[in-house]
């Protein structure tokens, strides 16, 4: 197709599409020995996916180092008159670092995901054993906490930022971590169990200045999710959940939630809302939210 449209130019025996007017280097389509390249296969794959799946948008989640390649891909499609060229979207992400260095299979600086998850589960199991040795379903909860810690550590960073790998910081129950959110969710359910609370039964007013930061954050949840979707940025949900958990834990530290009979129900209504929003935030990040830990 590119040849028929006179878009291919020979350069030192290779076939390229010139992108000089767009401020980019030529897109190499075929090497001088006739071999194809990533760009060639990406072009073919784009047409196949459009014909096969009739996509509205094709989102390529590929490392930031490939940004030039995807800019060239879109421009070549535009030069070819493809109407859906702008529906090709590159969603780049940063590198995973170990001691400040890029993980690399060729240089032997790599940790397999299975090993990471197993180590995270083992460490979570030890922490849970120390905190709550009589907890039921410890093994299942250790899996939820360990795997959730790894997932959250990745997703809490803006996707183009590089991420430093540290298993110990991932499983810190007091830091900006998945276990911190899960533990806050558990705290909410513990309060509701103590009060035999199941769900809101009527509209009641919570007139406390201490609760206002939480109420404001709860009202922002829909917008946060919508913006995360628009910008392909799960870190928005992760950072929001951390803000909500911090606000709730500060309230928990300053207010004896179950001590005032008149205020108990409206307070628990808010606790219930926090638990729901935290659980949904974690679910959107593909992380489980246990009710006990």
TrEMBL record:
Its EC number is 6.1.1.19. Keywords: Aminoacyl-tRNA synthetase, ATP-binding, Ligase, Nucleotide-binding, Protein biosynthesis. GO terms for molecular function: arginine-tRNA ligase activity; ATP binding. One of its GO terms (cellular component) is cytoplasm. Residues 181-293 form the DALR anticodon binding domain. SMART domains: DALR_1. Pfam families: DALR_1, tRNA-synt_1d. CDD domains: Anticodon_Ia_Arg (cd07956). GO terms for biological process: arginyl-tRNA aminoacylation. It is an enzyme of class 6 (ligase). It catalyses: tRNA(Arg) + L-arginine + ATP = L-arginyl-tRNA(Arg) + AMP + diphosphate. Belongs to the class-I aminoacyl-tRNA synthetase family. PANTHER family: ARGININE--TRNA LIGASE, CYTOPLASMIC (PTHR11956:SF5), ARGINYL-TRNA SYNTHETASE (PTHR11956). NCBIfam families: argS. This is Arginine--tRNA ligase. It comes from Thermoflavimicrobium dichotomicum.
């Amino acid at each position: 197709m590119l040849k028929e449209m006179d878009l291919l130019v020979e350069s030192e025996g290779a076939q390229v599409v010139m992108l000089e007017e767009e401020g980019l280097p030529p897109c190499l389509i075929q090497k001088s020995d006739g071999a194809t390249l990533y760009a060639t296969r990406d072009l073919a794959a784009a047409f196949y996916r459009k014909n096969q799946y009739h996509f509205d948008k094709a989102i390529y989640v590929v490392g930031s180092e490939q940004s030039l390649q995807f800019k060239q891909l879109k421009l070549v499609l535009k030069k070819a008159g493809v109407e859906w060229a702008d529906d090709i979207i590159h969603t780049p992400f940063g590198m995973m670092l170990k001691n400040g260095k890029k993980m690399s299979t060729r240089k032997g600086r790599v940790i397999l995901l299975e090993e990471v998850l197993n180590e995270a589960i083992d460490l979570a199991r030890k922490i849970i054993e120390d905190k709550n040795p009589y907890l039921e379903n410890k093994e299942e909860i250790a899996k939820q906490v360990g795997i959730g810690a790894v997932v959250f550590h990745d997703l809490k960073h803006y996707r183009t930022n590089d991420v430093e790998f540290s298993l110990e910081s991932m499983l810190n129950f007091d830091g900006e971590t998945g276990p911190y959110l899960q533990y806050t969710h558990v705290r909410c359910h513990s309060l509701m169990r103590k009060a035999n609370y199941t769900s809101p039964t009527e509209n009641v007013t919570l007139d406390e200045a201490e609760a206002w930061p939480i109420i404001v954050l709860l009202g922002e949840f829909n917008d946060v999710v919508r913006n995360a979707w628009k910008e392909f940025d799960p870190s928005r949900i992760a950072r929001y959940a951390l803000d909500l958990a911090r606000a709730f834990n500060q309230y928990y530290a300053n207010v004896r939630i179950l001590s005032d009979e008149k205020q108990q129900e409206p307070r628990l209504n808010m606790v219930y809302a926090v638990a729901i929003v935290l659980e949904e935030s974690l679910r959107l990040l593909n992380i489980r939210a246990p009710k006990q830990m």
